[in-house]
UniProtKB/TrEMBL annotation:
InterPro entries, alphabetized: Class_I_gatase-like (IPR029062), DJ-1/PfpI (IPR002818), Homeodomain-like_sf (IPR009057), HTH_AraC (IPR018060), HTH_AraC-typ_CS (IPR018062), INH-QAR (IPR052158)
SMART domains: HTH_ARAC
Source organism (scientific name): Dactylosporangium matsuzakiense
Gene Ontology molecular function terms on file: DNA-binding transcription factor activity; sequence-specific DNA binding
Keyword Cell inner membrane: no
Origin superkingdom: Bacteria
Pfam families per the UniProt record, alphabetical: DJ-1_PfpI, HTH_18
Stretches assigned to the HTH araC/xylS-type domain: 218-316
Protein name: AraC family transcriptional regulator
């Protein structure tokens, strides 16, 4: 794994969405180094320095031009107000230059249109605001548009759905590059869930909601998250919910967008990440605590879902996780051993994996 991004630039043309700029400014522009989170060299860039007006009429003074955008480690495009028009060729060239140089280029909402116009989505999967998904697919036939997901990871090109899905996409990027504890700490500071479903299944790193509208299921989810070391079969969960297995599976899928098997596996993987980052436990003990039973089973699932073995993951993320977790715990009045609890999934929609022991 290479060095995580430090320099972050957001593109803001005239008419840009105020919400999108606000999201990326809060996540990457707010200095949280005193709380153990990484600091970013953040800038909002325009076609040229000067004033722009957002979609809500707010005036912004842009201090940087496209040269700053072209040399950033992470480039973000949050919206494109004139969806029917072609973005400026200079902006498209700057995006291509950044990507060619090795930067991560990410867009959400109608900002994904700009990435498509730059040719960065050709041959790739992408998402955008559901309202514009059909139009984007028609205009850019070389792009596989997935309107039903919150974000799609294609390596150095990442796209997110509309509006607040920008939060999900940015937190996902933090988690991917810096680890779960850093993303959790920033999400906690913003008072938002680190992962969510939002009614849309994910293509990668699928968030699952902390709770659902079904009160009975919410209790079962909370119990399962607190008892990952137990055999959590569909029969066990259905019995606890006082339902038949068929009724439970149907209501579970309707409430979470996932199957019980996939959800439990994702919880175990994410809890394993948390322990690998923050706890001085053996791999065997981590495997036992999250319900995989043996280090070999944990390693098999971890390599399959994360692409690296548990020891390599720990080596990459443990230091930054400790800094962020301890600082956040102290700020919250907790002891340094306090554990953050967070949720998520990492499966294709509908995938079923047996996880009961």
């Amino acid at each position: 794994m290479g060095t995580p991004f430090r320099s972050v630039a957001a593109y803001a043309a005239d008419g840009t969405g105020a919400l999108g700029i606000g999201i990326v400014s809060e996540i990457f522009g707010f200095d949280r180094r005193d709380r153990g989170s990484p600091g970013f060299d953040f800038a909002v860039c325009g076609d040229r320095p000067g004033p722009v007006t957002t979609d809500s009429g707010l005036k912004m003074l842009i201090e940087h031009g496209l040269d700053r955008l072209a040399r950033a480690d992470l480039v973000l495009v949050t919206s494109w107000d004139a969806f029917e028009l072609q973005p400026p060729p200079e902006a498209l060239a700057a995006l291509r230059e950044a990507h060619t140089r090795g930067a991560i280029v990410a867009g959400f909402c109608t900002g994904t249109y700009v990435l498509a116009a730059a040719g960065l989505l050709d041959g790739r999967r992408a998402t955008t605001h559901w309202r514009w998904a059909d139009a984007m697919a028609e205009r850019f036939p070389a792009v596989t548009v997935l309107p039903e997901v919150l974000y799609v990871d294609e390596g150095r090109v990442v796209t997110g759905a509309g509006g607040a899905a920008g939060v999900d996409m940015c937190l996902y990027l933090l988690r991917r590059e810096y680890g779960a504890a850093v993303a959790n700490a920033i999400a906690r500071d913003m008072v938002v869930p680190p992962h969510r479903d939002g009614g849309q299944a994910q293509f990668v790193s699928a968030p699952v909601p902390a709770d659902c509208d079904d009160e009975r299921l919410s209790g079962v989810l909370a119990w399962a998250r607190a008892n990952l070391d137990r055999p959590l079969t569909v029969e066990t969960l259905a019995t606890r919910a006082l339902m038949s297995q068929r009724s439970f599976a149907r209501r579970f899928s309707a409430a979470t967008g996932s199957t019980p098997h996939a959800w439990v596996l994702s919880q175990r993987l994410h809890r394993a990440e948390e322990l690998l980052e923050t706890a001085d436990l053996s791999i065997e003990e981590v495997a036992r605590r999250v319900g995989f039973g043996t280090a070999a089973t944990l390693r098999e699932q971890f390599v399959r879902r994360r692409g690296v073995p548990p020891r390599a993951y720990r080596k990459t993320f443990a230091a930054s996780a400790q800094d962020a977790g301890v600082a956040q715990g102290v700020a919250a009045g907790l002891g340094p051993d306090a554990e953050a609890v967070w949720l998520g999934a990492d499966l294709d929609p509908g995938e079923q994996v047996p996880v009961g022991r």
